[in-house]
Amino acid sequence: MIFLASGCWNRRELNTLGVVGSVLYDVNKNKQIVATSELLCSASSGSTSGSASGGGKGSDASSPKRSTILVQGIGSSEPEALRNSSYSFSRKLYYPHTKVRFFSETFANTQLYKTLDFFLRDHELRQTCLMVVVKGEHPERIFTAAIDFNGSLGDYIYNLSQSQPASTSGSVFVDALEFMRHYHEDGLSPVAGVVEIINNPVSSILAGQDSQGNTAENYSVKYAGLAAFNENEIAGYLDENETRSFNMITGGCKSAYITIPYTAGNIVLEVINSSSDIKTELSNRHSTVFVSVSFNLVVTQVGNTMDISDPGVISQIKGKCQAMIKSQLETVIKKVQNEIKTDIFGFGFNTHIQHPKEFAAVKSNWDDIFRKADVFVDVKASISRTGEQERTFRLTESH
Amino acid sequence: MTPNYKYLTGRQLVFLFVGSKLFLDYTHLPLINTPPENQDVWITEILSIVFSVIFVIPILLLITNFKGKSFSEMVCTILGNKLGKAVGIIYAVFMTFGNFICILMILIFMNAYVFAETPPWAILIFTLLPALYSSYKGILSIGRTAVLFAGYAMVTILLFSLCGYPEMDYRLILPVLSDSTSWQILSGAFFLAARYSEIVLFMFLAVYFSPDLKVVKTAVLSIILGAVFTLLMALPTLTVLGNFISQHVWNPYYLYCRQIHIYDFIQRADSLSFIAWYILAIFKLSIYNFIAAKLLSDVFGTKSHKPFTFILITVLSVVCLLPMFNCSTFITQMRSYNVITWFVFPFIFILPLIILIVYLIRKAMKKLAVSKQ
Fold it and tell me: Does the beta-carbon distance from B179 to A360 stay under 8 Å?
């Protein structure tokens, strides 16, 4: 009882709190930090949508499904910007339930690395929230984008992190702890998720209102690809297809569809049980990397007349799939080596594990060695299942 | 079977030792910032068992030669009355100093992680009152609660180790022994064994041991169990947070516990870990306060240790609130391995060793005198 009583001093009543679901960090023209917090509305708040601003402009988050309001604060530092929200908000902002931290490109390029200390130091900030870069101008529009069945943008991105990896591997979901860990890890550069604000494809279909009277938002969020960071800024982006290859190399590919083009009709395979193995060699400041990716495939669609009950045909499809994936992986590795120029695959991290003595001598300029490294990719695929059909649907057309 | 209220059993002693040791690990996991200060630190914990066993030898030799005698009786017999009392006072100051460091760490952890706005004096009242009551009641009461309190902490450690499994990346503790020298590993093991003062508990509590207690076996078991549970905290922390972040935060294990979530139904489980930490804090303060009070009681020849428990806690409350001590920088300096070790080591090994040597010399001289006669 005594133990519980000691907490009363720091008690927080729900009706005095503004529980933050997500935060967008941006930099304005005066080079001040702008923090826009998305607050979750409790039943006692008596409000379901709206906006407020502290030392800055507020943006409207009106949506019939949303149960959030926005508050904005501007300051010369991130903690100050967050606190300055209280100039026009009557409750104490409460951050432990924040699910996502969004960063504008400007912020990610100029401020993010300075802010990591604050994220780790403040007692209310948690390291479980996702780190996401908002691509393009006017990042604040993200709060007006469609968020399907979710009450807040934070919930929307969090739910994506639960559902998307099981459907496609075209994105990464990196939490603050992982980002910070990779930031300081030798031979491994951090990556973050990327959202893009795109025109809502269904807004034109609904044209104002649907049969239930819901208004379609003008914008939609596309969560795909990744942002690669070198020490202090964004080094480059990978799109969703390249990110899928990245995930295959790093062992983060949980599920993906691979479409193998054939003139008579494509064959689609689903990746299950993917794994990767990275072996490295380091001699005379030159690195050689052997990436071995293996995955199990399930036939999902046969659009042509090939007889997949024939082991020879399966072997042919497998060979074509392996060659295609190998080419994709090599392209991505080349892109990262030549354009992004920082080791997001962790080849250096693996070199440290496999050749610690040699790596110690080169770790300070690992990125230079990474750019010149010879990377050999080996893809091993196996097709173990062919779905519910024993024979190809269009097989009779070939006779 | 009638419960044993007269003596400390072997099981109680093991839980007293482990619970007291785990408090420090819960608070700042000293292992992480001990040489070699890299992914190999967990190996130093294993090696520190050997050093701890070496350090406890003089104490074990002393208590087996003075079975049934209190520490004060033992040192007065060996060193004479005046010197024996002086040693008693020195150890009382040492135990109080241990509590002083613990209280400061409690204040900083509470303010930094949990109750940022709660004033230190309020934290002190709620922490020191139960510790005072417990030490007032005596070591046999503390011993009986040890199984429950330390047991709960050990269960939470096991639970968090299991729940954190999905978050762990074992590559973070690789490569093994490649980035460290043998000297770093050895010195790390020494610093680690030398900074925990728990082995002196055997010396002070020997008078309460049940007659059938196997002291050597209990001591070794306590040391091994303490190290195992420290490893169960350190390995998950290192494999989730990585070496760099673990070294840079005030309490790496608590940060690790905050990362634990299983799907959507086990969230914010760090409160369980926090409760374990707080219970251990009170537990450790009680043990140390009791021992310091008992030593002073023996030195001054009072009937009971009870008045001294009040005096010591009151003095500590005042001193710990002084601004020069109640600040992060002071305790960060004090708890670093190259400072605290040199405060603790003389009391857990050098002084008992000197007492043992004096005892052996006197014993040999006595034997010689008898043989001459």
Answer: yes
Q: What angle do CA B308, B313, B317 make, to 5 degrees?
A: 150
How is residue A26 written in tokens? Answer: 């941006």
SS3 assignment, position A334: helix
**Does B116 sit within 8 Å of A10, measured CB to CB?**
yes
Cβ of A184 within 8 Å of Cβ of B241? The answer is no
Task: Detail the DSSP E strand segments found in chain B.
Answer: none
Name every chain B residue with its beta carbon within 8 A of the beta carbon of A128.
258-259, 261
The structure tokens listed for A390 are 């024993």
Peptide bond into A165 cis (omega under 30): no
ipTM summary value: 0.89
At residue B209, the 3 state secondary structure works out as: strand
Contact A221, A102 (CB under 8 A): no
User: Quick one: which of B204, B260, B216, B209 has its CA closest to B236?
Assistant: B260
Strand partners, A270: A257, A298
Distance CA B345, CA B58 (A): 13
Kindly identify which residue of chain B lies nearest to residue A184, measuring between CA atoms.
B244
Q: Quick one: closest CA in A to B123, which residue?
A: A6
- Residues paired with residue A383 on neighbouring β-strands, in sequence order: A297
Q: Which residue of A has its CA nearest to B275?
A: A3
Q: Does B265 touch chain A (CB under 8 A)?
A: no
The chain A residue lying nearest B248, using CA atoms, is A120
* Test the A interface: residue of B113, B244, B246 with most A CBs within 10 Å: B244
Q: Specify the pTM.
A: 0.91
B258 touches chain A (CB under 8 A): yes
Tens of pLDDT, residues A142-189: 998 888 888 899 999 999 999 999 888 999 999 999 999 999 999 999
Contacts of residues A177-180 at CB distance under 8 Å and 24 or more positions apart, as own/partner, are A177/A127, A177/A128, A177/B240, A177/B241, A177/B245, A177/B259, A179/A116, A179/A131, A180/A116, A180/A119, A180/A120, A180/A127, A180/B245
3-state secondary structure of A145: strand
Give contacts of B172 with chain A, Cβ < 8 Å.
181
Average pLDDT over residues A24-51: 78
pLDDT digits (tens, 9 = 90+) for A52-64: 544 433 344 444 4
Task: State how far Cα B357 lies from the chain centre.
Answer: 26
B245 interfaces chain A, CB cutoff of 8 Å? yes
Tokens of residue A231, six digits: 């020490």
Please state, in angstroms and rounded to a whole number, the distance separating the CA atoms of residues B211 and A158: 61
Contacts of A91 (CB under 8 A, 6+ apart): A16, A17, A18
Q: Percent of chain A at pLDDT above 90?
A: 60
